[in-house]
Design goal:
The chain is mainly α and 155 residues long. The chain is built from six helices and three strands. The chain folds into two domains: 59 residues, Multidrug-efflux Transporter Regulator, Chain: A, Domain 2 (Orthogonal Bundle), CATH 1.10.1660; 83 residues, no CATH class. The chain has a three-stranded antiparallel β-sheet.
């Protein structure tokens, strides 16, 4: 028989706060197996897997209320293929969003690398060079990246 766990034990195992787990329970994302006479919620070991699943969904862009709605949408379904079709639709939408984020983050990473490269040239300046001289710097062959130019124009 699986042991039953209190929220504090699950919190310790998952790194979540007890408060967050109570919120999950409030949203019916986490359902206790039973309650003690003192009113403590007791959960099965499967609650840890469910929390990992919730974490994964939030990582791919679902909010907790969306996860609640997501789970609720399956309650009226009777047949497994219908549920899998719904899952496929939702997961395909999220995949498109994640792929767009990857592209956007790739572009940001490139801009950060360019900015770091640009500043490497600046580190060769005389340590007492005033910031106002950056506007007319001749050490750079290319135009400064946006992450640099806005700061340089501010001085």
């Amino acid at each position: 028989m699986n042991s039953l766990l209190r929220i504090s034990q699950i919190a310790k195992k998952t790194g979540k706060t007890s408060r967050a787990l109570r919120y999950y329970a409030e949203l019916d994302l986490l359902i206790p197996k039973k309650r003690t006479d003192a009113g403590y919620r007791l959960y099965g070991e499967d609650a840890i897997l469910k929390i990992e699943w919730i974490d994964k969904l939030t990582e791919i862009g679902f909010s907790l209320p969306e996860i609640q709605e997501f789970l609720g949408s399956f309650k009226d379904l009777e047949f497994a293929p219908d549920m899998m079709a719904e899952l496929q639709i939702l997961y395909r939408e999220k995949l498109l969003e994640v792929e767009a984020s990857v592209i956007r983050l790739g572009k940001l990473a490139t801009e950060l690398k360019e900015s770091i490269s640009y500043t490497s040239i600046c580190l060769q300046c005389n340590p007492t060079t005033e910031i106002s001289h950056c506007k007319s710097c001749e050490k750079h062959e290319e135009e400064s990246p946006l992450l640099i130019s806005v700061i340089a124009q501010s001085f």
